[in-house]
Design goal:
Blueprint lengths: L1 H9 L66 H10 L10 E3 L4 E3 L5 E3 L2 E9 L4 E7 L5 E8 H6 L1 E3 L2 E2 H14 L8 E6 L5 E7 L18 H20 L2 E2 L8 E3 L5 E3 L6 E2 L6 E2 L11 H4 L4 E2 H18 L9 H10 L13
Parallel strand pairs: 1-9
Antiparallel strand pairs: 2-3, 3-4, 4-5, 5-6, 6-10, 7-8, 9-10, 11-14, 12-13, 15-16
Helix pairs in contact: 2-4, 5-7
Length: 351
């Protein structure tokens, strides 16, 4: 017990950079702009690469530079995360509860129940499933539960070699490792092999989305934006210290508690790396928050892309509008790449 307490107080090995492997050499492709962009919703992240490349960096690399040498590929996020979990490299005080038995019932008022959790109302829905508010009959606390159908996830292809189920399981693996005041906490996973249902029980964040209904009249002001930015940077720094990149930082994925604390959520497209070499080749995030290097078809750094998205989010928080929003996807990308951006300085009135 003492060892566990000390481990949490000090942070896991990855926090201090003990988990490191030599950087691998890789060949860079020439910068090319994708001119065959489809017109998808610019504020949504359901845009797939036209070549169908997987979300992880699975490019084959040649470490020796010799044509005849045996080629190796970087490990996938799932391999890295499973290794960390199996070897106790988890930065949590208490592990995520894993439940293999699902009991669906009703309480005395006719409300639907999942094990100990009583359903209250639907919160929202995403590409893969729905989110509803539940109350625990054990501790009387509220939780947000994401519900999925495994058969649907297994059929839904997000890349030629990857299904939506892999996305969800990777999200679970990432959240199993993490615990931080500025990151939404995963409490329990319910996965009964005898049923088609899969549930993620998450900490319930009472507040609304940051910049909900973004528009010219929804700016938060500099003081509030500064306070929120501090929390966002704190959570993101923690992720990057564990060689995890979020890849979809935006107002919709930032929740605010009733006490004014911002928490980063939705790790469905996040990736993990063995070391600081965080190279990726495609951007699974939301177009208007995409960094310029992600558009060119070359390798880019995941941490740098997260940082760019934080900057765009800060702009949205202060001014209540998007800095690079075009009428089409191509127009949006052109603005990100080529638009001469200017800030309008407004003098502060003196009392």
């Amino acid at each position: 017990m003492l060892n566990k307490t000390l481990s949490f107080a000090m942070g896991c090995c990855s926090c201090f950079g003990f988990i490191r492997t030599p950087n691998r050499q890789s060949q860079r492709s020439k910068p090319t702009t994708n001119n065959n962009l489809c017109q998808e919703p610019l504020l949504d992240d359901d845009i797939e690469d036209e070549e169908g490349e997987p979300l992880y960096n699975d490019e084959v690399t040649n470490n020796s530079g010799d044509e005849g040498a045996e080629e190796t590929r970087p490990k996938r996020s799932e391999e890295i995360l499973n290794f960390r979990v199996e070897n106790g490299m988890i930065c949590r005080q208490f592990p995520v509860k894993e439940t293999r038995k699902l009991v669906r019932s009703e309480d005395e008022n006719g409300n639907k129940m999942i094990n100990e959790y009583i359903r209250e109302y639907k919160i929202g829905s995403g590409s893969y499933g729905k989110v509803a508010l539940y109350r625990s009959s054990v501790d009387d606390k509220h939780y947000a539960i994401k519900a999925f159908h495994k058969s649907y996830l297994l059929k839904l292809r997000v890349a030629p070699s990857e299904t939506a189920m892999m996305d969800v399981l990777r999200e679970v693996l990432i959240m199993k490792m993490l615990e931080h005041p500025n990151i939404v906490n995963l409490i329990e996973v319910i996965d009964d092999p005898e049923t088609d249902n899969f549930y993620m029980v998450l900490e319930y964040v009472e507040g609304k989305w940051i910049c909900e209904g973004s528009g010219p009249t929804c700016g938060l002001g500099e003081e509030t934006a500064r306070r929120y930015l501090r929390d966002i940077v704190s959570g993101l720094t923690y992720l990057h210290a564990h060689n995890i990149v979020h890849l979809d930082i935006k107002p919709d994925n930032l929740l605010i508690t009733c006490h004014g604390t911002v928490k980063i959520g939705d790790f469905s497209v996040s990736q993990a790396f063995e070391d600081d070499k965080d190279e990726l080749r495609r951007s699974p995030g939301t177009p208007v928050f995409t960094a310029p290097e992600c558009i060119l078809g070359v390798k880019y750094g995941g941490k740098a892309a997260d940082t760019w998205a934080v900057g765009v989010t800060l702009y949205c928080m202060i001014l209540g509008e998007y800095p690079f929003l075009g009428d089409t996807l191509q127009d949006t990308y052109d603005k990100i790449l080529y638009m001469a951006f200017m800030f309008i300085l407004v003098p502060i009135s003196q009392s």
